[in-house]
C-alpha cells in the first residue's frame, strides 16, 4: 500500500507552513483537498504543482472509497483541509478510519491548529482541556450541550462562527455563570485579537461592536470550587447589559 499523509496547513498566515509539509505535498502523487479552489492559492504560493482532487464533507463517503482504492494501487496521497489540521472539525475521518482498518500506512505531518494555537495564549489553564468543536446551532440543543459540559474541570474549547459567537457566550453565562474566558479571533492574521476576562466582559466588548468579523475560538475556564452560583436574575441582567452596549 502507498502512504496516506495527513498534512496541516496554515490558519491564515502563509508563513506558518512547515518545510516538511511543502516537501510532502511536492512529493506525493495526489493531494486530496477539502476545497481544491481554496487550496490552489496555498499550493500556488509554494509552487506546488501536484494534482488535486476534492474530498469534502458532501462527498466524503464516496471519495474515501475512491482514495482507498488509489492507495491500494500504489498512489501516495496527502490530505489537506482549508486551514489547520485535517479531521479537526474538518473532513477526513472516514478516510483515515478506513485506511487504518486496511493497514494502509498513515503519516501525520503536524502544523497549525486553531484550538491549540489559541489555548497557548489564552491565559487559561492548559494542563487539562476539552475540545468541544462546533456547538449545536439550535438553542435547545446548545443549552443541553453546555449544561452537560458545566461540570468539567478542564478548560473548555469551542469553535464558533462570528455570527453565532454572541449567542454562544450568553448561553455559556446561563449554563456556567460568569467564568473566566478568552476569545481568540483571527489567529495568525493581521487583525489577530485576544479578549481575556470574565464571559460578561467578552460579551459587552463584542456587544459594543457594529459587526463581528473573522474566525473565533472561545476558551472557558473549567468548573472550580470557588465558582459563584449566580441567580437567574443576575444572569439575565448580565446578558442584557452585554447586548445593550450596541
Ligand atoms: N482544522 C482547523 C484547525 O485545525 O483548527 C479547524 C477547521 S474548522 C472548519 C474552522 C473553525 O476553526 C473556525 O470556525 C474557527 O472556530 C477556527 N479557526 C480556524 N482558523 C482560525 C483563525 N485563524 N482564528 C481563529 N479561529 C480559527
Automatic annotation (TrEMBL):
InterPro entries: 4pyrrol_Mease (IPR000878), 4pyrrol_Methylase_sf (IPR035996), 4pyrrole_Mease_sub1 (IPR014777), 4pyrrole_Mease_sub2 (IPR014776), rRNA_ssu_MeTfrase_I (IPR008189), SAM_MeTrfase_RsmI_CS (IPR018063). The keyword rRNA processing applies. One of its GO terms (cellular component) is cytoplasm. It catalyses: cytidine(1402) in 16S rRNA + S-adenosyl-L-methionine = 2'-O-methylcytidine(1402) in 16S rRNA + S-adenosyl-L-homocysteine + H(+). It is found in: Cytoplasm. Its EC number is 2.1.1.198. It comes from the Bacteria. The keyword Cytoplasm applies. GO terms for molecular function: rRNA (cytosine-2'-O-)-methyltransferase activity. Keywords: Cytoplasm, Methyltransferase, rRNA processing, S-adenosyl-L-methionine, Transferase. It is an enzyme of class 2 (transferase). Residues 3-200 form the Tetrapyrrole methylase domain. Belongs to the methyltransferase superfamily. RsmI family. Catalyzes the 2'-O-methylation of the ribose of cytidine 1402 (C1402) in 16S rRNA. PANTHER family: RIBOSOMAL RNA SMALL SUBUNIT METHYLTRANSFERASE I (PTHR46111:SF1). This is Ribosomal RNA small subunit methyltransferase I. The gene is rsmI.
